[in-house]
Amino acid sequence: MSHLVQPSVQPLVPLLDPKYYYSSLFVDAFTEDLVDLLRTFHDQYTLKPPPRHAFDIFKDIWRQKGWNWIHLKELTDAPREAFLDTCFRIFVTHIACPPFHENANGVLYQIGALFALYTLYFTQPSVASPKIWRQHHISIPIDYHASLHALPSLVSSDMTHYVIHVLSRLLESHAFYIIPASDLEPFSPVKLPHSILKKVPILEKGKSGRKNKQQKGLLALEKLRRLEALADGGEQHPVDADDDALASYLALKQEIADTVPSEDIKAAEDETMSRLRRVDVKTTEKGMETGREGLIRAEDAAISPSGLLGLIRSH
């Protein structure tokens, strides 16, 4: 005997695609925030004399900029793994290859990135309900790892013990996972951002079956241009250039006018105008102007004494 599956009373929670954290939407914004953090740390520490110890300055800036809430950015396992992987990767890159800023001490940017990596790694929630995914290892190319070990020899004496303490804690916790050198492109994805997303402007469209202000303005300008051309004696119909075709058409038009009752001609004209208007509605709905010129000419001719047959004129 089969059992029916009971519907769930809990709504599905929308999940963010992990690829988002490798895209330009996240990577560019995160990098800008990190550079702002490092620049502020650099500026405050270079005051003469420094107001406090290096790590105390960094902690206050970390809180002031709202970085202490970073772990609440993503709580779902798969997206959180991608989120932390990208964060640590950007930190490691800024430690080994600090951004160039004129009149700035690049070593302070490296130290700030090291403090950021240390703080993010050791503030990962270890006790939570439900349990939150935690990244235990930070991938780092072997040449970046060598640059990391060289940092204590590059800093001033008043900052050396802070750098040594932070590095010692990370090494004792086996935080680093050594991967091949950076020139071999060992990361996955190879480049950050992995995908570039650009904003595409949405064109405003008028309501279906109605002309918006822009369409009405263009139509008014077109009518004005035609009136000016007629006043100057220009803008002849293209068919006027073909004398043989024109003569043949004029003869046929006269024959129809002489033999076909006027009410039949009027009915044919009404049907033609109805079809032209339906075409105009369809093209307007699709945002096209095809057929508009012909409809304007036909409407002008329909109210004239000669009707639609007067569209073709003799020289």
Tell me what the structure shows.
- The protein has 315 residues and is mainly α.
- It is 53% helix and 3% strand.
- It has 2 domains: 18-184, no CATH class; 237-311.
- The protein has a two-stranded parallel sheet.
- The radius of gyration is 37 Å and the shape is elongated.
- The termini are far apart.
- GO terms for molecular function: sequence-specific DNA binding.
- One of its GO terms (cellular component) is snRNA-activating protein complex.
- One of its GO terms (biological process) is snRNA transcription by RNA polymerase III.
Q: Secondary structure elements and their pairing?
A:
Elements (H helix, E strand, L loop, with lengths): L23 H22 L8 H11 L12 H20 L9 H17 L15 E4 H9 L6 H16 L3 E4 L33 H19 L11 H17 L2 H24 L6 H11 L13
Parallel strand pairs: 1-2
Helix pairs in contact: 1-2, 1-3, 1-4, 3-4, 3-5, 4-6, 9-10
Largest sheet: 2 strands, parallel
Compute the CA-based radius of gyration: 37 Å
Query: Which residues sit in consecutive blocks of at least 5 with pLDDT less than 50?
Result: none
Structural class: mainly alpha
What is the β-strand count? 2
GO biological process, one term: snRNA transcription by RNA polymerase III
Pfam family, one: SNAPC1
GO molecular function: sequence-specific DNA binding
